[in-house]
Design a protein that fits this description.
The complex is a heterodimer of chains A (143) and B (486). By secondary structure, chain A is an alpha+beta fold. Chain A has 2 helices and 8 strands. In chain A, the strands form 2 sheets. In chain A, strands 1, 2, 6, 7 and 8 form a 5-stranded antiparallel sheet that branches. In chain A, strands 3-5-4 form a 3-stranded antiparallel sheet, covered by helices on one side. Chain A is globular. In chain B, the strands form 4 sheets. In chain B, strands 7, 8, 9, 11, 15, 16, 18 and 19 form an 8-stranded mixed sheet that branches. In chain B, strand 4 and strand 5 form a beta hairpin. The chains are: A alpha+beta (143), B alpha+beta (486).
Amino acid sequence: MPYKFLENVAIADVAFEVRAQTINGLFEDCARAMTNVMIRDLSDLSQKVVRKFSMVAANIENLLFNFLNELVYYKDVDFLLFGKFKVNIRKKEDGFEMKCIAYGDKIDPKKLKPVVDVKAVTMHMFEVKKTQRGWRARIVLDI
Amino acid sequence: MEFKRPIFTKVSDVIWEMPKEFKRGMLVPGRIYATEKLLKEMDNPVFDQLANVAALPGIQNYVFALGDAHSGYGFNIGGAAAFDPEEGGIISPGGVGVDINCGMRLILTDLTVDEVKPKVKELVDNLFKAVPVGVGAKSAFKIRESEFKTIAEEGAKWAIKKGYGWKEDIERTELNGTAEWADSSKISDKVIARGINQMGTLGSGNHYLEIQFIRDENIVDKRIAKKWGLFKNQVVITFHCGSRGAGHQIATDYLQKFLPIMETKYKIKIPDKELASVPFNSSDGQDYYKAMGCGVNVSFVNRQLIMHNVRTVFSKIFNKDPEKLGMRQLFDIAHNRASVERYNIDGVTKTLVVHRKGATASYSPGRKEIPKIYRSDGLPIIVGGSMETGSYLLSGGDRSEQTFCTTAHGAGRTMSRTKARGLFKGEDIQKSMFERGIYEKSNSWTGLAEEAGQAYKDIDEVVNSAEMAGLSRRIVKLLPIGGIKG
């Protein structure tokens, strides 16, 4: 698993750390980890619904924060969860641009094994870092 | 990351002082209201987070942690801090919490445990259908976008006008069910879009709805219990939830708004982005306060709609009007809010912005924040325990002004969700609870495992430590016989 849940951070909430070789992969795995906080098995989620969206941000941290928040928004407004992502991030003069294609389905508690709902992505210990082997991110979600 | 533990000075058996020297930048010391055992159980990041809050501009007297404290994000859970706007005092979305006005409501009944026990499965199954829970829970109430703005400004008054409650519910709700300062022009379209889908839903995590009863030996203050309509073997309903997606989006919007301006515009430096704060008396601070008011109102309406459905379910199962079942609301109280209150600091009366995050107001008898019907007794306080162990109804203590009228809000976790998930199984917990006479229904086995009673502190010790310090007094303890969780 490219992400691991952290035991002793913000104990009423959920924290996880993601490592990936590329920045695109990091974003994709962060999104999958967040969906995995809400349902036990990502393979239960079909890919019937395809949503394309893009966003820009001044730095990579804000881009990831906004990206995950957008997915929380789709969950609450359109009742959609996504389990597969194709992310493409481009450096621009004044920041970063991300294009994403997300594959998922409407939330059906009978088909999925729900865990807990995500209220929000927090900025607590939020980190996106370039490492020798690739990229690392740490996220704390409010539950 | 390693966090150090302070060297505490013992003030009393239940008050421990954390010195200002514990961390650079602290403007005031910390005070922890807990027994020695509870203090030992607290995870080290709590103290680091307390120290961070103690460094925010305008803080008064002490930064506080209650017996149920544990680490959170930005501000710890189970904590309170008051800031003076005249001294640059701040308001912070992270000090209120994402789930604005998350809180507890208690509904009385005239039913006894002997009358309810045979029907508890039927009641719980019907409540599970009537009150949507968990990931993707959908509101059964059709609310238009334009109507949502009225909800955000009127709070519980809107619900009563629509027939989702009784007029007297309002006088039994904090703020009479309405944050009058709310301004819907300060919330985004995203707040409305997330909010309209989730009104009348419970959420998940530690949110719950329980059918509980009162054992004779658990009535601690017989005089007030009688006055408030409580009696031995009585069945009551309590539930815990907040402002749902609307409140969460308000918090996210203002966190994003404050982070880029906090240091440049207001020269406020913070070690954790979730401490994002602006002066209360700035236009940015006032915008958040008005938006937070909308979150407060949405939360009151959410609990009002849930109560409406609870009354409907009981009415159906017992084939009697809710009025004839005595289903009066006893109280509704928040544990995530910033509140403007007056206190005497060194002989001077000041208006302060009191942040309570995972902490409950505990106004002492006579304070004007208490609804008239309860004013002489102290504020009714509903403290939610774990699903396995029970909850408490307290009243505000005579000496609660020492913590800016704040007491504990729950049992408080001892271990993370991730750890609990590894140690417990939802299926085993449900079975064991059933054997002990508690019928618990959830759509998430993992969610149940995360909420295991053993993942929480001893609630008796938490409320006792608050009582020993004079912050609150026990009225009754409530034991569960059935419940629903997301």
